[in-house]
Amino acid sequence: MKINENTRIVGSKVVLVPYKKKYVERYHQWMKSEELQYLTGSEPLTIEEEYQMQESWHNDDNKCTFIILDRNRFDKTNPVDSMIGDTNLYLNDIEEPFTAECEIMIAEKCARGQKMGWEALILILRYGIEALKINKYRAKIKIDNEKSIKMFNKLRFNEISRSVVFEEVTLECDATAIKFRPLFFNSVAYGSFYTGAEFLQQTYNINQKEKAAAVLNNTPVNSNKLFPDKFKLEDYNVPVLRRYLTYGYFLAGPILHGWYSWLDKMFKGTAPKIVVTKLLCDQFILTPPLVVLFFTSMSVMEGKKTENLLDECKAKFVKTFATSCIFWLPVQFVNFLLIPPSFRVLYVSVASFCWVNILCHLKLNFLFNVTATAYNRIGIDDFNQCDVLSWVMTIFKVGNYHKNAIKTGLCKVFTNISRRDFTTI
């Protein structure tokens, strides 16, 4: 490919340079090795055929070839003596012009195990994304080449097929998984959505308290307004927001990133049996300890005494887990069936944001409706008391009308509702 004939890509350990005629003889010596012939699926060529091959690759717009140089040796000697391998991109798929097959070979044994192949692969993948606009990569590797498969897996390549005839496995990767740092990206995404959900709920609670106050004062209420007209920082519980930020960014985000990476390696593919296995593992192996972690970490950050750290978890665990099964089983079924592995945590982040706020909306809508019903039942005169607790007691004197709902609901509306009274993960 002529587009890279004047390109040099410099890393900390390696340098990538275009495959030119001066490198052919050394390359020819490498390819006499039966080991390399087997691993690359190549046939032995004569030196003349090797020169012809280099020329054809140079003129082929569908092939992008680089020789890998040891940077340390390159700084001290000449390029030919610094050669340790090669790495290539092939754009042979007519139906998917921005999909490339990538390969890498570290021919010099002394350069193996030094992370040089790792860096060279990252460099050429990023070059493909930025210079060639590649959006998907594939790699074909011999089934018994475990080290190479493991290296590609670390770069978010996932197995899509396996050929017994050719004794090779095909891996695929969405280019966006390489462009971003997956752990950092997933942690930031989950932390942001989770903290955002708490912020939105506090905003919603503030608006509901304004509605309740309007009912008390017999003033017009816009029941369709979800948020207050003005946002005041002093109305928000900032310490709670900090706790949710800490939990999302530094606990749940990294845990989910590691969990889905492990799950996709253990159970590969989207066959019904695989999807169901992932679904059950996620709900019944990961979720219970994650629920415990949520409640205990919140208790620790709230400064509760050691002997009281598990109190809230004991009180809410069963109900929280049971409720989560109703929502998360279908949500995660879609996740494991349709969502690319590199976007699983982002998908779960958005789902968590929706789930938590749906619960908040339903809960507070119910409480407000009970308040309005009680208002109509009792009459305006009973709302002239300034003391909220006295007003609640007035309601209790009316009789049994919505008695249970009032007891469990109205006190929460007028005593600065704690969002974790109805939180589920």
Automatic annotation (TrEMBL):
Localized where? Membrane
Is Cell cycle given among the entry's keywords? no
Record keywords, A-Z: Acyltransferase, Membrane, Transferase, Transmembrane, Transmembrane helix
Its topology with respect to the membrane? Multi-pass membrane protein
For the N-acetyltransferase domain, which residue ranges apply? 14-157
Pfam family of this protein, just one?
A: Mpv17_PMP22
> Which residues lie in coiled coils?
none
Task: Specify the domain of life of the species encoding this protein.
Answer: Eukaryota
For this entry, the protein name equals Similar to nat9: N-acetyltransferase 9-like protein (Nematostella vectensis)
Q: Which residues cross the membrane?
A: 244-263, 283-301, 321-339, 345-368
Q: Which is one GO molecular function term here? A: N-acetyltransferase activity
GO annotation, cellular component aspect: membrane
